[in-house]
Amino acid sequence: MSQQAMNVAVIRRAGEGEQQWFFGGGVFTWKLSDADGDIHLIQVDMVQGKWTPVHTHPVSESMWVLEGQIRYRVLDDDHELGPGDFVMVPAGVPHAFLVESATAKVLSIQPTCECEPFYRGACEPLEGSACVVDFDRIARSAQENGGIRIVAPPPF
């Protein structure tokens, strides 16, 4: 990150930000990325049934639920999260989630952009995307870019 980037405010209005289809399921709207500074912030729009395998990251990961209902597993404990709820999972701690409502919108927050190459490698531009789930693409990005380690299949 350049000194200039550190001295420039970033303002993203509702609906603004680069939009990409994430092959794990969901639309990413990049609110902050490596180009903006040192915090990773993505709005994620998902539909019912979207799940993740149990996984870890090399940095902490937080989720702030804006809309919908999420079942979030940390280690062996499930937590029901709704609008306004927040979870922070430390680096290296296994976790997974499942969207239980018809739709859900969350902010995904990481304190660094260390995992951004994984997410970028597991996405494609939303415009023109067939919006299909492709876990082979997720695994390939993880292998090529790091940023995530799949620990187990979905627990739900």
What this model shows, in words?
The chain has 156 residues and is mainly beta. The chain has one domain (17-152): Jelly Rolls (Sandwich), CATH 2.60.120. 13% of the residues lie in helices and 40% in strands. It has 3 helices and 12 strands, in the order αββββββββββαβαβ. It has helices at residues 3-6, 116-121, 135-145; strands at 18-22, 27-32, 40-47, 54-56, 61-67, 70-74, 77-81, 86-89, 95-99, 103-110, 123-125, 149-152. It has a 7-stranded antiparallel β-sheet. Strands 7-6-9 form a 3-stranded antiparallel β-sheet, with no helix packed on it. A two-stranded antiparallel sheet has the order 4-12. A hairpin with a 4-residue loop joins strand 1 and strand 2. The longest helix has 11 residues, at 135-145. The protein is globular. It starts with a helix and ends with a strand. The model has no long low-confidence stretch (mean pLDDT 94). InterPro entries: Cupin_2, QDO-like, RmlC-like_jellyroll, RmlC_Cupin_sf. Residues 45-109 form the Cupin type-2 domain. This is Cupin domain-containing protein.
